[in-house]
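tokens incoming
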């Protein structure tokens, strides 16, 4: 009896321990899953919540609103990008589905060894990194002289989607029986009729799955589109990318939310859509017969089924489907022609983000009848390889001083015929003289804006830290600024700060001096909150940092925005005592420009005093146009943050191009700074 009790107790104890272990295991499994979901979806949920925040702040809740969604749908740029995205996704998915289905049928008829080889080749792009595919396609287009644009994006997306369609259709083809197809032929059906009546219904789930997969992947693709798009065309992903780099806007939260919800819905449809009974029956019915008797039985059964199918009332449905397909193809073809066709009166412009008044572009188009295709870049280093590659033949580009020198020395620029630009007389001779430091003889460049690089600081925040207002670059290495400094995410600008603080020239070519500057930037990193570009002004206005390195041209906007928001602190700008960079951005015409005459009309138009004034009021960067300066009111002319005195520029230098070898040294050292 005791033995039995002991056994029972041991069994109960063992069962209890097993139960506890099972509960503990389940707890850790659930906990792990929750952690994964939090890491994956918490940022997305945060973004979705912010899309309904009435305030632009990312930290303060200003109340519920849908105005960012309204603003999004009212934006012509977003609507155009949405149209492009849907169109490219649909056409590429449709084309890839047709081609992929045909390819799958051909592959399925191969013998085992060649089939395995072909499927292995098909799987390589799927396993390959998207960036490799994107760059490869871009280089292919450039090698064959195909200008980047709508057509190249479409071709790239079809190429990208094709392997996935083949992979979706192949399993369904394996499930079909060739004997039903042969039975249909025996009953008098033509090959096409037999295929669409017998084979196609069985593989339809795979075809639809391939289409939805291709559509979904094209819908949210960025990398392939980024490398194969040309000027003047954006999809939602590339638009979000370009907008975010210039400063995060709440309307981008709304747009990203819609994209996420749409893609999620499509994925759910793709993966969880119920299969109809006919498809299930077809799957069960598919298989290779093992004996001759069974084969004959299958053939007889197939003939009976085929007879019913061929005599069925599907003619009207077939006509309706054919008509729908024809309409879709017509719309797609018409749209493709719209984007693929080249206008004879165009101007391809490549400029910095938010660096021109859009009304100026519209006025130019109305006056001249020239269609402006406008594209954006963020840094000189981003712009240069694009122009050098020649995938898009831009007619006018707006680089900075040192980059203009580099482009000229590498034979990338066309000389400007100033006879076609009579308004060049409005550019102050002082700036034409300064431009000769990077453009000897003023052969290639027309000055557009100028300015300095300095320190913008929050007076209240600096006081709270117990510091005096910054007056030197060296002040940005004060340990009290930990996590409070915004640095420029630009090689030359960042090294300029370090070199000037060390007492060196910002155009230093000494490797020892550059390494010393690198070490200084690495030592500064604990103090740096972020490396940014245009976001400096928004972060400083929002009170997110104590000091930031900024271009002087941002000051007018900052002053106006601070006054509008009635901030309880002031934002002041100072040119450091060690000196700084005085920069000039200018328009140039690339050597491969196809519309040089239109480009010179554009330059002459921008040199008009009233046009230059409109641009200044929009971008708030100082203008070298003396006619435009004279049109400004006296208060603006005397604003030293925008138009500093010459005396404050005595230690300032213009960036110079120092050769590819020195550029490589700068870039490698900058990588080391960012990596540490």
């Amino acid at each position: 009896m005791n033995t039995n009790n002991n056994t029972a107790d041991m069994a109960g104890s063992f069962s209890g321990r097993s139960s506890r272990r099972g509960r503990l295991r389940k707890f850790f499994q659930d906990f792990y899953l929750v952690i994964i979901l939090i890491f994956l979806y918490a940022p997305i949920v945060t973004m979705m919540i912010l899309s309904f925040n009435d305030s632009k702040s990312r930290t303060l809740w200003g109340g519920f609103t849908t105005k960012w969604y309204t603003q999004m749908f009212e934006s012509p740029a977003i609507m155009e990008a949405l149209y492009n995205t849907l169109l490219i996704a649909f056409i590429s998915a449709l084309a890839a589905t047709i081609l992929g289905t045909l390819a799958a049928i051909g592959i399925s008829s191969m013998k085992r060894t060649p089939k395995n080889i072909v499927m292995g080749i098909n799987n390589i792009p799927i396993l390959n990194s998207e960036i490799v595919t994107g760059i490869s396609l871009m280089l292919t287009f450039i090698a064959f002289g195909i200008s980047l644009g709508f057509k190249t994006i479409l071709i790239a997306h079809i190429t990208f989607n094709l392997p996935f369609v083949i992979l979706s259709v192949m399993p369904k083809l394996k499930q079909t029986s060739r004997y039903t197809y042969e039975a249909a032929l025996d009953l008098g059906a033509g090959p096409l009729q037999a295929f669409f009546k017998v084979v196609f219904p069985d593989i339809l789930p795979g075809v639809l799955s391939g289409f939805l997969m291709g559509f979904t992947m094209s819908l949210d693709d960025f990398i392939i589109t980024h490398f194969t798009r040309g000027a003047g065309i954006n999809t939602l992903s590339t638009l979000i990318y370009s907008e975010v780099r210039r400063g995060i806007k709440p309307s981008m939260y709304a747009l990203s939310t819609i994209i996420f919800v749409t893609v999620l819905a499509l994925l759910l449809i793709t993966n969880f859509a119920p299969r109809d009974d006919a498809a299930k029956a077809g799957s069960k019915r598919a298989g290779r017969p093992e004996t001759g008797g069974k084969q004959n039985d299958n053939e007889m059964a197939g003939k009976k089924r085929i007879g019913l199918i061929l005599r069925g009332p599907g003619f009207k449905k077939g006509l309706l489907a054919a008509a729908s397909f024809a309409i879709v193809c017509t719309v797609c073809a018409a749209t493709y022609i719209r984007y693929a066709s080249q206008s004879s009166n165009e101007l391809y412009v490549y400029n910095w983000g938010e660096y021109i008044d859009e009304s100026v572009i519209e006025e130019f188009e109305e006056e001249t009848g020239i269609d402006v295709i406008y594209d954006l870049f963020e840094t000189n280093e981003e712009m240069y390889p694009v122009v050098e590659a020649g995938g898009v033949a831009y007619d006018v580009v707006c680089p900075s001083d040192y980059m203009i020198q580099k482009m000229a020395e590498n034979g990338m620029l066309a000389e400007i015929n100033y006879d076609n630009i009579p308004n060049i007389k409005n550019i102050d001779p002082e700036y034409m003289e300064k431009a000769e430091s990077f453009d000897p003889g003023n052969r290639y460049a027309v000055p557009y804006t100028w300015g300095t690089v300095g320190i913008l600081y929050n007076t209240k925040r600096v006081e709270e830290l117990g510091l005096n207002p910054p007056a030197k670059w060296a002040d940005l290495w004060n340990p009290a600024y930990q996590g409070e400094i915004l640095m420029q995410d630009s090689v030359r600008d960042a090294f300029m700060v370090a070199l000037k603080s060390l007492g060196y020239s910002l155009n230093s070519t000494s490797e020892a001096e550059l390494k010393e500057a690198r070490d200084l930037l690495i030592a500064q990193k604990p103090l740096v909150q972020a490396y940014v570009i245009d976001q400096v002004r928004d972060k400083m206005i929002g009170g997110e940092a104590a000091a930031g390195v900024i271009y002087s041209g941002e000051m007018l906007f900052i002053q106006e925005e601070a006054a509008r928001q009635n901030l309880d602190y002031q934002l002041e700008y100072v040119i450091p005592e060690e000196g700084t960079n005085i920069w000039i951005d200018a328009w140039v015409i690339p050597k491969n420009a196809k519309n040089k005459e239109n480009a010179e009309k554009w330059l002459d138009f921008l040199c008009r005093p009233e046009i230059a004034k409109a641009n200044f009021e929009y971008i708030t960067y100082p203008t070298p146009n003396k006619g435009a300066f004279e049109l400004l009111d006296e208060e603006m002319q005397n604003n030293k943050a925008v138009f500093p005195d010459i005396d404050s520029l005595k230690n300032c230098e213009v960036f110079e191009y120092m050769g590819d070898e020195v550029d490589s040294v700068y870039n490698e050292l900058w990588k080391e700074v960012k990596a540490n």
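note: Residues 274-295, 308-317 have pLDDT under 50 and may be disordered.
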